[in-house]
Backbone:
């Protein structure tokens, strides 16, 4: 089973930026699309961005034009660049495989202060 490890979260002021990393235990070419999800306290986990093996991307409306998902195939890593962060972006961020879900990792906490 694919193992996924998230990192890069932290505390940032509104308007700031963070870059999250998701390192996978297998080649990105072999595991298909990878997505970034988030879950805020009291909320359902939601998919915020997704990237396919061909590099096609999709974003939730709430993060479009602020977040960018990308992949480094040589490093088996998927990134989420988050700019113009807002307090409502505060959540635990996870990566997983939208079309072949695997075990959830511990995630990485993102906290945006106003």
Residues:
């Amino acid at each position: 089973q694919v193992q996924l490890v998230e990192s890069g979260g932290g505390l940032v002021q509104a308007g700031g930026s963070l870059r999250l990393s998701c390192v996978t235990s297998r080649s990105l070419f072999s595991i298909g699309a990878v997505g970034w999800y988030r879950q805020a306290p009291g909320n359902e986990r939601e998919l915020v961005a997704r990237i396919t093996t061909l590099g096609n991307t999709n974003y939730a409306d709430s993060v479009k034009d602020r977040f960018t998902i990308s992949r480094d195939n040589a490093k088996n890593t998927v990134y989420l660049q988050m700019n113009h962060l807002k307090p409502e972006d505060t959540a635990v961020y996870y990566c997983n495989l939208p079309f072949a879900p695997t075990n959830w990792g511990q995630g990485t906490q993102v906290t945006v202060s106003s």
